[in-house]
Amino acid sequence: MKLKLALPVAAILAVSAGSAIAADSSDPIIIPVHNWSSQIVMSHVVGQIFQSIGDNVEYVTTDSQAVYESIRLGDVSLELEVWEGAFGASYTAALEKGGIHEAGNHNAVTREDWWYPLWTKEACPGLPDWEALNACAAKFATPETGDKGRFLGGPVDWLKHDQERVDALGMNFVVVNAGSAAALWAEIGAAEKDKKPIVLFNWTPNFAEAVWPGEFVEFPKWVDGCNEDPKVGPKPDVTYDCGNPANGYLKIAAWDGMEKKWPDAYKVLTKISFTNPQIAQMAKLVDVDDMEPEEAAATWLEENQDVWKGWVN
Ligand code: TMO
Predict the structure, then answer these.
(1) What is the pLDDT of residue 21?
(2) What is the pTM of this model?
(3) Of the residues 158, 201, 209, which should be mutated to test ligand 1's pocket, given the most ligand atoms within 8 Å of the CB?
(4) Can you list the pairs that 52-56 forms with residues at least 24 positions away whose Cβ atoms lie under 8 Å?
């Protein structure tokens, strides 16, 4: 009888010891921040949620392609914005090596590609067709590009293959990379004054769609494998002959060791899912309202408690 009673006590002790072991490590969760506003704000939003449940966090500024290797090795704990168009290849390569996995998939549907503000159509009425754009190339010429058109790409760590696409499709364009996202917005603002045609890299969800109505250039439709297999895509002998996915994913990635080291934070992470308008709003707080990322995150959390409070309980 005594022995029988002792068993449940031992079982209770084992359970409480188990939950003590399962508490999150006091080591900081390492959150990478990159060079576009929604990612920076979202990183602080989630970092502040982790802090609200007692975790320590540390933000590190990292290259947005190399980050997948850093996560795989455990030097960085997670990535909140894995955009298919820009990072799908780096992410997939890291997945195949191991050490990183998908911890979530945002509700958001994404697109990243060549884009123009609507006034550009006056100079090039055949848009959004890419061949019509190509026939208008001279309208996009700058002193830097001679008689070819300028495509203003994003910072070099985003999309790696604009030049490959220009070469694959034989386009009369030169790729010039902007140094920062802010440089892209400044160029649209400058072109807007006299409605100069401009074609540049842009994406959705973003604050820009609410400020400058515009459209993506329609390239040959994306097919999986287009950038690796010459036979995929409209030209049978070249790679990179497709546009980026028009309905791309936005995923969350985590280091395989995260669940064991920070089980509570990891559980929250797997519940997180943001929509297009929520992500556009995060960018707007910085790019239109001029807030610092920490302040933007705190504001977003304050205004959207109904969205995230359920994830921490
Ligand atoms: C990676 N980005 C969202 C800027 O295309």
Answers:
(1) 55
(2) 0.92
(3) 158
(4) 52/312, 53/24, 53/264, 53/265, 53/268, 53/312, 54/24, 54/264, 55/24, 55/28, 55/29, 55/262, 55/264, 55/265, 56/26, 56/27, 56/28, 56/29
